[in-house]
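Researcher: Good morning. I'm working through a list of sequences from a screen, and I'd like to move beyond sequence-only analysis. For each chain I'm collecting a predicted structure so we can compare shapes side by side. This is the next one on the list. No need for commentary yet; just the structure.
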Amino acid sequence: MWGFDIGFVVCGPNEALVISGIGHGNSPSFVIGGSVFVVPFIQKIQRIPLNIMTLEVKTPRVHTANAIPVSVVGTAQVKINGLSREMLTMAAEIFGEKDESEILQVCLSTMEGHQRAITGNMTAEEIYRDRETF
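Model: Good morning. Structure tokens for this chain:
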């Protein structure tokens, strides 16, 4: 979602602008829910969504620690912390030119891997008994 927005660029409270190029040194500047003046072809702008994204994490047929195959479906909510410069910098690096659907896919793939790893280290009894912890 890199753009060549010209002049005055505005973003809503649920997104962050990442401004890089001349005048921003070695690290980008961030604007959350505000506006900034952008010089075309000298500065670049990227928009990062800050809304909560809900994922349905499905892990079909994974083996538990005691080799019992189970299918697990979970729900996760993910959000980029707009108050943390470190988090915004990391999000800008990881999500680069991705749109919201691509960001969701990256998050979903990561959560599926974690869910598979957690399920593989638990017994079927632990999963059933400790559903809240799981």
